[in-house]
TrEMBL record:
This is Si:dkey-256h2.1. Residues 1-26 form the signal peptide. Residues 383-505 form the Peptide-N-glycosidase F N-terminal domain. PANTHER family: SI:DKEY-256H2.1.
Length: 679
């Protein structure tokens, strides 16, 4: 069944030119965000398949528990065994689990997968970066599965250094049987979790009986803004596209690869007013991931572009002056990827934004994170459940009032175990966007500490696996009575998330380290952020304070995130610095130096940043990442203080070591900060 791309609703894009300072010369920095007005992530996936289109599994006999078809993420993966090139893969292994498994079903009908398996950098990423605790099982949908298995193994062998070869080959398994001959439950998951499609070009010409349908790979979404709609276009040959060509105006340009960069071709054809371009690979060459390089990425181009294989029939028609028309479609196909975590639970793999095995690595790093988190959560502590599967939506958010354990002063460690899941089990039910989630607590309504911020997280764009444990021990003094009301909320227009929150109280054990034995007993709220414009720092006044008697340690505790986008990408994608100046001489600074880098947040999948989201989760940001807690910044200022006399403190925030001074659209800084006194 063929489906066309839905016409994008109003396409907004925000081009963010990163400060060059933020990027090493080698790092490509591309800061374009593509926002669709209806908030769906369809720029990447041609929409999820809806129930009425789901492939009928009745004949396969694979019903889950509850009589529902197929499996859900989180269900236990049934045992299976599969014949492989090396013998047999048995899951779970007799020796027990201890690894995560990624199952990938290949088809040569997908240009994306062709590129995934032929790109040198993609294969190298797998060989060099596939985490040690992970294994992969590769199968093929095609009747050529046996040859595909050998070919996939060769691709890996080809790029693996002698040093890496044995290790990687011991952890990847190749099935010579195609998916439709596996005879186990795996096809059921692949078919029922489908949201993949096969993007295709349809060529027609009056001379042909049948249209010619070819697989296509669209240019990197975060480079080229243009997307194909439902229209048909004339196809006009324009050689290698390395020079402008007036003949292509209003048509799709048909270009050979090579002789100049993809960028040059697109720019030339855009300046010739082409409606889009199709680059065909040289004979025997694979389809490539069309992308920009270096400074090219700073030029915005807005026509769509895709790569396809050479089409002799198209060339012949063009050479003989016959008209050729092209249109674009995406045909639904079963899923290509699924995961099984270290506990044997099925997991979705999210979106691979571009064809690279890096996305496997990030998912596997997150499985490792998830396993370590499970171990940490297994340590018994005094815990208090605040929210359990509570829907967080609207102005009020998710609210709960709970009694705290007695003897609060015994505890000097407070961790927040927070989770954000979705109304359904599948990511398809998860809200889009990376919104700030803030947790406020009020225990004593008459206290200045009522409704201060206790924790902050950022939602994962369209993925529901967020789960984090954050140490907020210095904020224990916010819990200044035995009964507290907790409010967790995000922007009121966000679609519903399902929130979980547990407080975990404990105390440091007696390892003899005196500074570990201290208890936070008093808290002084300091500054909140504001609009990051030229008035930003004028709003902050110095704060005078004295240190309470018997204080042993004083800390500044701050949670700071940058949002919005002025012409420098501030505060989300620009490098801002935040300073607390103590007694006029001691500067304590925090710099968001990964903001605006190409992979600043992707690198944090192993720390719990939800991988493979349906947005631009990869880029570094101002103090935060999509699908991650905001780490509190703590700095010990005891030695900077006069413990028996007056002290002063002031905060200021800078862009490029100066006051911010945007010309339009200033961003904003969301900050909560405290002085914490320990005894
Ligand atoms: C994949 O398909 C292309 C044409 O679309 C063909 O040239 C190539 O040989 C196929 N590769 C494999 C491994 O089957
Ligand atoms: C795998 O383990 C080796 C040795 O323990 C280590 O050097 C390497 O960095 C690890 N690789 C990954 C990708 O985790
Ligand atoms: C590259 O340029 C050369 C010289 O201009 C030309 O002969 C050749 O056809 C071009 N290659 C392609 C693939 O268009
Ligand atoms: C005490 O702390 C040390 C070091 O952090 C740890 O190794 C030990 O297991 C802890 N003991 C108890 C009883 O928690
Ligand atoms: C004691 O704990 C503090 C805070 O955790 C740490 O910075 C310091 O290095 C520790 N000292 C020793 C001797 O372990
Ligand atoms: C803080 O102290 C300084 C110097 O002692 C004084 O000039 C200033 O007025 C004080 N500010 C406030 C807000 O009390
Ligand atoms: C601390 O403040 C007291 C009271 O103003 C003063 O007498 C003392 O000299 C100060 N100590 C230092 C180290 O500045």
């Amino acid at each position: 069944m063929a489906r066309l791309y839905p016409a994008p609703l109003m396409l907004l894009f925000i081009a963010r030119l990163a400060s060059l300072q933020a990027s090493s010369a080698a790092a490509r920095v591309k800061l374009h965000l593509m926002h669709y007005a209806d908030g769906e992530a369809r720029e990447f996936t041609n929409t999820f398949k809806t129930t009425d289109q789901s492939i009928n599994l009745r004949s396969s006999g694979h019903y889950g528990k509850d009589g529902k078809l197929g499996f859900d993420p989180g269900d236990a993966a049934p045992a299976f065994q599969i014949k492989t090139l090396a013998g047999e893969f048995v899951y779970p292994p007799a020796a027990g689990l201890k690894f995560s498994l990624i199952i990938h079903a290949y088809t040569n009908k997908s240009a994306f997968l062709e590129c995934l398996w032929t790109s040198e950098s993609s294969l190298t990423d797998l060989v060099e970066g596939f985490p040690n605790n992970s294994q992969a099982l590769f199968v093929s949908y095609d009747d050529t599965a046996a040859a595909d298995a050998l070919w996939m193994r060769e691709q890996i062998q080809r790029v693996a250094t002698a040093q890496r070869r044995n290790d990687i080959l011991a952890r990847v398994h190749f099935s010579p049987l195609p998916v439709h001959e596996l005879g186990n439950w795996i096809p059921s998951v692949l078919y029922s979790w489908s949201y993949s499609g096969l993007p295709q070009v349809v060529f027609t010409s009056p001379e042909w009986d049948m249209p010619l349908v070819a697989k296509r790979l669209d240019a990197r979404y975060d480079w080229l803004m243009g997307r194909w709609g439902q229209k048909s276009f004339n196809l006009v040959g324009a050689g290698d596209g390395c020079k402008p060509s007036p003949a292509v105006a209003g048509a799709v340009a048909w270009l050979s690869e090579g002789n100049c960069s993809f960028f040059t071709k697109v720019r030339n054809m855009a300046s010739s007013e082409a409606s889009g371009i199709l680059v065909y690979a040289g004979m025997g060459h694979p389809i490539q991931d069309m992308n920009c390089e270096g400074s090219e990425c700073f030029t915005l181009l807005t026509i769509p572009a895709s790569m396809v294989h050479a089409q002799p029939a198209v060339d012949l028609a063009i050479q003989t002056g016959k008209p050729v028309t092209v249109s674009f479609q995406t045909t639904t196909f079963p899923n290509f990827f699924m995961g099984i975590d270290q506990q044997g639970a099925l997991a979705e793999m999210g979106l691979l934004i571009y064809p690279s095995f890096r996305f496997f690595n990030w998912q596997a790093q997150w499985f490792d994170f998830s396993e370590r988190l499970r171990e940490r959560l297994g340590v018994p502590v005094r815990d208090v459940t605040v929210l359990e599967d509570v829907v967080m939506q609207g102005d009020s958010g998710a609210v709960a009032t709970v009694d705290l354990p007695s003897g609060m002063t015994d505890f000097n460690i407070l961790e927040l175990e927070a989770s954000l899941s979705c109304p359904g089990k599948r990511d398809v039910t998860c809200p889009p966007w990376d919104h700030t989630v803030q947790l406020y607590v009020c225990c004593d309504h008459f206290s200045a500490l009522c409704n201060q911020e206790l924790g902050r997280w950022i939602t994962a764009f369209h993925r529901g696996t967020g789960h984090w444990l954050t140490d907020v021990s210095p904020l224990i003094p916010l819990l200044n009575s035995g009964r507290c009301t907790f409010t967790m909320k995000t922007v009121p227009w966000a679609k519903p998330w399902v929130a979980g929150l547990r407080l975990r109280f404990s105390h440091t054990n007696h390892t003899g380290n005196q500074s570990d034995q201290l208890y936070p007993f008093s808290l002084m709220p300091l500054y909140t952020g504001g609009v990051f414009d030229k008035e930003y720092n004028k709003r902050f006044q110095p704060i005078n304070f004295t240190v309470p008697l018997s204080t042993k340690k004083v800390e500044v505790y701050a949670v700071i995130t940058g949002h919005g986008s002025d012409e420098n990408g501030c505060g989300e994608f620009c490098v801002t610095s935040h300073h607390f100046l103590i007694n006029g001489v001691h500067k304590n600074s925090r710099v968001f130096d990964s903001a605006g880098t190409a992979l600043g947040c992707a690198m944090r999948a192993g720390e719990g940043a939800v991988p493979n989201e349906y947005g631009t989760w990869l880029y570094g940001r101002g103090g935060w990442c999509d699908g991650l807690q905001v780490d509190p910044w703590r700095t010990d200022i005891t030695k900077q203080l006069n413990l028996t006399g007056p002290n002063s403190l002031i905060y200021f925030g800078l862009y490029q070591d100066k006051d911010p001074n945007p010309t339009s659209n200033p961003g904003n800084i969301i900050m909560s900060s405290y002085l914490v006194f320990y005894k």
